[in-house]
Design brief:
- The protein is of the alpha/beta class.
- 34% of the residues lie in helices and 24% in strands.
- The longest helix is centred in the N-terminal third of the chain and has 17 residues, at 2-18.
Length: 290
Amino acid sequence: MKSINKTMIDHAVKIAHEIKANALLVCVDVINDTGLIMDEIKKDIGFIIVSREDENISDEMKKDAQVLYIPNVNLTRVGKIKIAIAKGIVLGALKRGDKVVCLSGVPKFGYADSIFVIDVGKEFEILTSDFINDVIENVQPEVFNTVINIALELAAQGRESRKVGTIFVLGDDEKVMQLSRQMIINPFSGYPEEQRNILNPELEETIKELSAIDGAFVIKENGVLVTAGRHLSAALDSKDFPPGLGSRHIAAAGITSLTKAVAIVISESSGNVTVFKNGKLFVTIEKPVE
């Protein structure tokens, strides 16, 4: 396995230099010997390390590379790359026009088996020069990261063996509330803000439990949960939408077209997680086939 990983890393580095890539992105869950990465990491190319949250990354690696954490759930080879690049964009580490060479694989095989070249502007088509500033202005990056992690966990695991479908709407909460209506009694009403912030890990089980009810979660840009069970009244005409996307996706596109919010949708039927901004699909992270 070591020889395969060394060969893959050597080729990825060579490709990155030949195409003048802005970064080399490596999913370390498929490489047991991180020393192979350290041998290359100090060369003249930016490294992005993609790590599951439960993996130990050395301080030396953190010093020499940017580390992006993904949740400890089953993701496809491309899914890991998509979530990492989406987080990198929101954090400002990647931008339109960047070329990224990506090294990925399936953890149970124990070696990297795939090299992808991603043009960030083409893969994430709605990316514009002010997109990152627009997102960061209206949603704190750590809030985006936390919500997308929860969404991926729910998509992968469901709730009590049942599939889950829901929407998280982040930012511009006052306007979102004006363009929506409550379907149930607000479960977060009356609690102080520090007790209903999505960054509080103690709330994760509550959020997962409430995900089984109809309607959307509305979350302030700083992570404070405003409400759950909210019906989003704004919707785009479905004829303008890619085929195969349902009412949740149309509602998410609609609310983001009329507000500065970001919407994250879990599809109950497919288990895919999709992010919307400015009324358009930003990225879809596909659920692996069991």
